TrEMBL record, chain A:
Organismal lineage: Bacteria, Pseudomonadati, Pseudomonadota, Alphaproteobacteria, Rhodobacterales
Name by which UniProt lists this protein: RNA polymerase sigma factor
Matching Gene3D superfamilies: 1.10.1740.10, Winged helix-like DNA-binding domain superfamily/Winged helix DNA-binding domain
Pfam families from the UniProt entry: Sigma70_r2 (PF04542)
Keyword Mitochondrion in annotation: no
Source organism per UniProt: Cypionkella aquatica
PANTHER family: RNA POLYMERASE ECF-TYPE SIGMA FACTO, RNA POLYMERASE SIGMA FACTOR SIGZ
Residues of the RNA polymerase sigma-70 region domain: 31-91
Similarity comment: family membership: Belongs to the sigma-70 factor family. ECF subfamily.
Gene Ontology MF: a single term: sigma factor activity
UniProt entry tagged with the keyword Transcription regulation: yes
Gene Ontology annotations of biological process type: DNA-templated transcription initiation
InterPro entries registered for this protein in UniProt: RNA_pol_sigma-70-like, RNA_pol_sigma-70_dom, RNA_pol_sigma70_r2, RNA_pol_sigma_r2, RNA_pol_sigma_r3/r4-like, WH-like_DNA-bd_sf
Highest taxon, organism lineage: Bacteria
UniProtKB/TrEMBL annotation, chain B:
Residues annotated as signal peptide: none
Membrane topology: Single-pass membrane protein
Protein known as: Regulator of SigK
Species per Swiss-Prot/TrEMBL record: Cypionkella aquatica
One matching Pfam family: RskA_C
Keyword Transmembrane: yes
């Protein structure tokens, strides 16, 4: 089993250890801020969301199960879910946002994540290479920016159901490739 | 082509993958989230996809985050010097006998108190009052974590508000902390405390200023 310092900290936080809570903030806040900023696109809102996310880390740490995934994966899922919920709540009350749509295709270079073994990182990227370029970009961009089907469909100029079918099939191919 | 893939993911798995991918709209996300809480098989599918796509997280560049710990801790541990353990104990999942024992018109606790499912942090601008509320099973526990009793001749009154509907009174607060039967509630309902004439707002309606309020959120 690989070392997972974040998982260890979550275990302590579940037992109400405030020092561990401070430690997880200093270890993970920059990464989670990166996630929130990328999805929300606005520093003030990202900072507000960061407070909410860490509040939930304290309240929900007892639900983390180390045998089901790495600590950082759990933290990032918490941050992404919160950010996407905010984005949807915001987006459904306003017209389509050009900037967010343009942000879908992802070209940002990959940051190295020291917490994830290189071997694993290679695997998903190799599997992305088995997808059509456009679909791989849509999938990656959707994940990173939390883009909705509605916006993806508009951006790729296809009906929503077509977009959904594309991505579902791409997800299936990805899964099959990763299981090989 | 070296292999012919199955044509489509099973519907549940597709939904789990889409939830993790983040492409669902608000209504679909809410439906998926509520299913996550009651359907372990679906939760396992979501967990698998979370792990499967986790390597994409490498693409999120780190961004400098300000030190927001003081604000976060102030929210989580109000008045760190005054009995934080009582509040923390329920968050940890166990309603302690001490927390219940202090309540004014408490009900007898069941043998194994359920963990809280919803909480609210209540405060208002220009008000020194802060309360935390937690709904666990059929009980709502309200704890004052900062501030004092209402001035002589006045009472604090607790209300629950669903969307744009009129506030529904949950009663006058006779003590700093109370446990009462939980009202019908869902995430997003707002709990509010107003300052009212002794005995509560006449006609069952709030008349005074809001001294603390906050939305209920699922834990």
């Amino acid at each position: 089993m690989m070392d997972d310092p974040i998982a260890d900290l979550l275990g302590k936080i579940a037992a109400q250890d405030r020092a561990a809570f401070r430690s997880i903030y200093s270890n993970a806040s920059a990464k989670l801020m990166g996630v929130l900023l990328r999805i929300l696109g606005n520093r003030a809102e990202a900072e507000d969301a960061l407070q909410e996310v860490f509040t939930r880390v304290w309240l929900r740490a007892n639900r983390y199960e180390a045998d089901k995934g790495r600590g950082m994966t759990w933290l990032i899922a918490l941050a992404r879910n919160h950010a996407i919920d905010r984005l949807r709540a915001r987006r459904e009350t306003q017209a389509d946002d050009e900037d967010a749509m343009n942000a879908v295709i992802d070209t940002t270079p990959r940051a190295e994540n020291r917490l994830i073994a290189v071997g694993e990182a290679k695997r998903i990227n190799q599997c992305f290479d088995t997808l059509e370029v456009e679909k791989a970009a849509a999938l990656r961009g959707a994940y990173l920016t939390g883009t909705s089907y509605i916006d993806l469909a508009a951006q790729f100029d296809v009906p929503l159901n077509t977009m959904r079918t594309w991505l579902r099939r791409s997800l299936l191919k990805l899964k099959e490739c990763m299981e090989q | 082509m070296t292999s012919t893939p199955a044509f489509d993911l099973p519907e549940d798995e597709a939904l789990a993958a889409e939830y993790v991918l983040g492409t669902l709209d608000l209504a679909e996300r809410s439906a998926a989230e509520s299913r996550l809480r009651r359907d372990p098989a679906f939760a396992a599918l979501v967990n698998d996809w979370q792990n499967r796509l986790a390597d994409l997280n490498d693409d999120y560049a780190e961004a400098p985050a300000p030190n927001l710990l003081p604000q976060i801790e102030a929210r989580l541990f109000p008045q760190a010097t005054a009995k934080p353990s009582r509040w923390l104990a329920w968050i940890g999942g166990a309603v302690t006998a001490a927390a219940i024992g202090a309540a004014a018109f408490m009900m007898l606790p069941p043998p194994a108190p359920p963990a809280p499912t919803m909480t609210a942090e209540m405060s208002a601008e220009a008000s020194p009052l802060r309360y935390t509320a937690a709904i666990a099973g059929d009980q709502l526990t309200l704890t004052r974590v900062a501030g004092t009793d209402a001035e002589a001749g006045k009472d604090y009154e607790l209300w629950i508000i669903e969307g744009d509907k009129a506030p529904v009174s949950l009663g006058v607060l006779s003590q700093a902390s109370v446990t009462i039967p939980a009202p019908k509630a869902a995430a997003g309902y707002v709990l509010a405390i107003t300052l009212e004439p002794k005995g509560g707002g006449p006609d069952g309606k709030p008349t005074g200023p809001i001294v603390a309020a906050g939305p209920l959120a699922e834990i």
